Protein 1
Amino acid sequence: MPLKFRTAGIAVATLSLGVGGLAGGANAAAQLLAHRAVYDLSLGKSGDGASAPVSARGRIVYEFTGSPCEGWVTNFRQITELQLAEGEGRISDMRSSTFEEGDGSAFQFKTDTLLNGKLVETVDGNARKSNDGALSIALSKPAPAKSDISPGAMFPTAQILRIVEAAKAGDKTAEIRIFDGSDTGQKVFDTMTIIGKPREAESPETAAVKADALKGVTRWPVTVSYFDPGKQDGSPNYSLGFDLYENGVSSALRIDYGTYVLDGKLAKFETLPQKGCDK
């Protein structure tokens, strides 16, 4: 999951396909599982200083549906309650909805961010790829704006597919430029993905063990680090670790913001209806 929270998403979510690029990866795309997953968040690690939380709790609800023919729909919500070392606690609530064309040609996105119950930002727009893979981005909120990005970036579902393909091929790393509509809605991130060996032991998460759709499905430990373009020699903006199943499901989340880390345990899991492509 294919996960952004600047408050971080699961791009779990979240390879280099480009316009029409799914022609070679349609079989892989068809294997992505429509599902709803709920993750309970807790504080995994915290640093020193007034800005570091002393406690944290929250929840992520992630819903992924669609097919290579219909396109892919992702609905994501993360609520996090942080208590800082100094001052009052704060509750952030991020709600994101996206639609990605099955051939990777277009992407629609909308994100609402609330802080302590008050809407502080809405980002709403779309991105389209030209024949050479360049992106044209149009925003309606927070203010009308247009921008163009050079070829090479991909959308979140394509990112998930690329990571799965790399893992199945035995690759240990994957460098991917990603546009997911996060941050200002006009920004591309460079990502570095580290892929471990397939997990042999049973998942420690009860919800994953009980899910019939995950039984016998290969999974890999994955860490995706997000960087500002051209700055991979420094610290990432944040990193997202998780176990990635071959069908695109994620479990055992670990979200590293630098000053603190949130752990996400898969608490609930269910498959959702999914149509196949007509031949």
Protein 2
Amino acid sequence: MQEKESEALRNQRRRRKRIGRMKSMIVLTVTGWMILSMILIVFLLARTVSLERRLDRLLASESWNQVPATESEEISSMQEGTEAKEDAQEENQTPPQVSGMEDADNLAEAGDVHKVYLTFDDGPSENTAAILDILAEYDIKATFFVVGREDEESKALYQRIVDEGHTLGMHSYSNKYSIIYQSEEAFAEDYDKLRDYLYEVTGTECRYYRFPGGSSNQISNVPMSSLIDFLNEQGTVYCDWNVSAGDAASTAYTPEEIVANVTEDVVKYKTSVVLLHDSSDKSATVEAIRPLIEALQEMDAEILPIDEDTQVIQYVKADSAR
């Protein structure tokens, strides 16, 4: 009887050991899968971030290959009811159209002075005011391609841009592709509304325009050549860009990366028109302005506003639109 009890006790102990080993294996297996899953998740997140950055850089670099960097469309909808301008300019009063320089002629050689035009799209916003403060510190003039905003703060910023010697340009009233590029009539109405509004606010006739998406965008429902013809008839010079800060494609760039994006391309050209943005979500761009100016000054670059002496950059040349 005692031997049977001892044998039963030993069997019970062996069974407990087997159960204990099985539990340990299950715990180890589950723990291993959890650790492996976490490692895989971290790897995939890192890979995703890396791919996003590469995509942003690709989008930024494509602007010079006539695929402009995608621009922001978060501006509020265009308000209705503004009358179209009635007094069209006489043909013999229209200033000569300015056509963009040829790519090959713009490649820098040793000893060339780099002319750099800092241009800001999508403002005004509170970031515009901050950028203007920094430009004033360095006595630098820039170009602002603005959209239509009717609040008092925006009106004051339009006026400040003009008063402080910067170039005030147009970037459409609404900055909404679905409105601007719906038809030739819609584009003309939007253009007239912004031009007349800026003249009413500042007393300045704006003669520079930047197409949302650039002059070679693939979004317009009408041929860009017809819109270029319209601007030529108005005596308005349109300006694309050949250097992109990359701040339109994503807000992920650091100020240091924005500076690098610009300076790495500026060295290639005699004339560099730099695409930047001053909308309300571009705080990294604001932080990049001081180091960018200082980096350009170290290169002995001339930082200028767009004016009648500028050799403009155009993806589709003004004199080849027809």
